[in-house]
Every structure is written in structure tokens, then in C-alpha cells.
Amino acid sequence: VKLEVGLRKALQNDELYLLYQPQIDVASSQIVGFEALVRWRHPERGIISPTEFIPLAEETGLIVPIGEWVLRTACKQATGWQHPRRRPVRVAVNLSAKQFKDENLTQIVLSALHDSGLPAELLELELTEGTLMDDARATMVTLEQLRGIGVYLSIDDFGTGYSSMNYLKRFDVRALKIDKSFISGLPADSENAAITRAIIAMAHGLKMAVVAEGVETDAQLQLLEQYGCDMVQGYHLGHPSPPDSVQRMLSSQP
Ligand code: G
Ligand code: G
Ligand code: MN
Ligand code: NA
């Protein structure tokens, strides 16, 4: 209860902030985007992880205003990353199931894009399989609206939920993000290696791009490159970092 009271005030007291983790294109080694990851600087308890407060935010409905703040902040920051002589840089935002079900979602997305000036295709929205499979009819309507806006849609934590292949085809999203639990045992774990290869083959067959998450070693990166994985994200490529290091990473790219 106490944490809930604090979370209600966290937004107005400016206690939330975003870190950004780079996503790298395997073929060119260039940064193609950053995933926004929220943190809470609690006045007494210090930094609180989203694994602790996002579930609370979902239960209390606070995820809707918090999610809107994340979206607006990420879009504004990403607008500042663009440079006429460099390749465009996407920003990826995690959407929770409650946000996806919010009837105002498309309006909020449009407004965040409009107010920031960020082109729609540079905003990536990460949805989980659970969010998508929950109510297939409503999901299709919302997905259609988001696709109409032109945002880049991806499925996060892929492989940990229950998406039927039939729905996967119909969702028509741009990318799958292979969950880090499949990547962590590579290259030694031959079963997870087989799963990783199969996900990449399936995604490419459906004309989707693949992002491997939780890449922590060069051996993992080499294997993923060999498998034809399109993009990688993880501590080996870069930790979640504050906005000023994002600017440094971008300007130090060849
Ligand atoms: O950054 P970290 O590994 O601590 O994130 C833990 C979990 O919190 C991940 O599942 C991540 O998707 C989730 N998360 C991080 N930021 C956000 C956010 O802005 N919104 C939502 N809904 N989830 C987030
Ligand atoms: O659920 P989602 O994929 O959005 O969560 C991403 C989470 O993974 C964040 O909490 C982020 O801090 C964490 N993360 C990012 N890179 C790595 C990594 O290389 N290894 C591990 N173990 N966690 C990572
Ligand atoms: Mn994510
Ligand atoms: Na994930």
C-alpha cells in the first residue's frame, strides 16, 4: 500500500526516468535503435526496478499515465537523436497489456508523435504474446489502428508465451524479439540453439525481422550472425544507459 501511494506521486515528483539500451544491426554493426527502460528513483528506497513497480502499476491502473509519460518522453528524446547525415534511429517502448487495451491508446500514440515530431516509423511498440493472444478480436482492431499510424510493431519475449502460428501470421508485426532465456545458454546449449535457429527461419519466412535479446558474449554474437539474426541487444553491445550516453554512442559511430 505504501509503495502504491509513492507510485501515485512518482510521476508528479519527477521520480521516473528512462534508460536506453542500444539495438545493433548485425550486418553493419550500426545502432538502429534504443529500447526505453523505465526506472523509479524512490526518495527513501533508492532505485526500484520495473519488475517490482510495473506489476503494481498494472494492478492499480497507474500504468496508463505512467505508460503515456514513457511514450511521450521516449518520443521527445528520440527526436533529438536524429541527424540528417546519419541513419534514422528508432526508439522502442514496452507496452503492457492494460495499455494495449486502453481505448485511448491510438490517440495517445498519435499525440506523442505529433508533439515530439518523431516520424511514426521511428517509434517501435513492443507487445508480448500474452497481450496479443488475450482477446483476438479486439487485438486485431487495435493492431490495425497502430499499423495505420505507421509505427513499427514487435513481439517482445518471443518464445515464452503462447502464440499460435496462425495468429502470428495474421498479426503482421515487423519483428520478433527472441527472449533472452533462449540466448543465455548459447553457444553450448544445443536445444536453445535449435530453437533460436527455428525462430529466425520462421520469422524470415513470415517476412519479419529478428532481434536477439540478452546477448552477453562475443561467441553468442558470432553464432547469431551465422544464423542470420538481423539485430542484437544485450550487455555485450551496451547496457541500458542515460540519455547523455546515447548521444555519445551515436556521435562516436563511424
Ligand atoms: O530494464 P529491466 O530489465 O529491469 O526491465 C524489467 C522488465 O520491465 C522488462 O520486462 C521490461 O519489459 C519491463 N519494462 C521496462 N520499462 C518498461 C516500460 O516503460 N513499460 C512497461 N510496460 N514495461 C517496462
Ligand atoms: O522484457 P524485456 O525484454 O523488455 O526486458 C528487457 C530486460 O532485460 C531489461 O530489464 C534489461 O535491463 C535486461 N537486459 C538487457 N540486456 C541484458 C543482458 O544482456 N542480459 C540480461 N540478463 N538482461 C539484460
Ligand atoms: Mn522489451
Ligand atoms: Na524481452
TrEMBL record:
The EAL domain sits at 1-254
* Region of interest called Disordered, as start-end residue ranges on this chain: 240-254
> What is the superkingdom listed in this entry's lineage?
Bacteria
Indicate what this protein is called per its UniProt record: EAL domain-containing protein
- Organism encoding this protein: Duganella callida
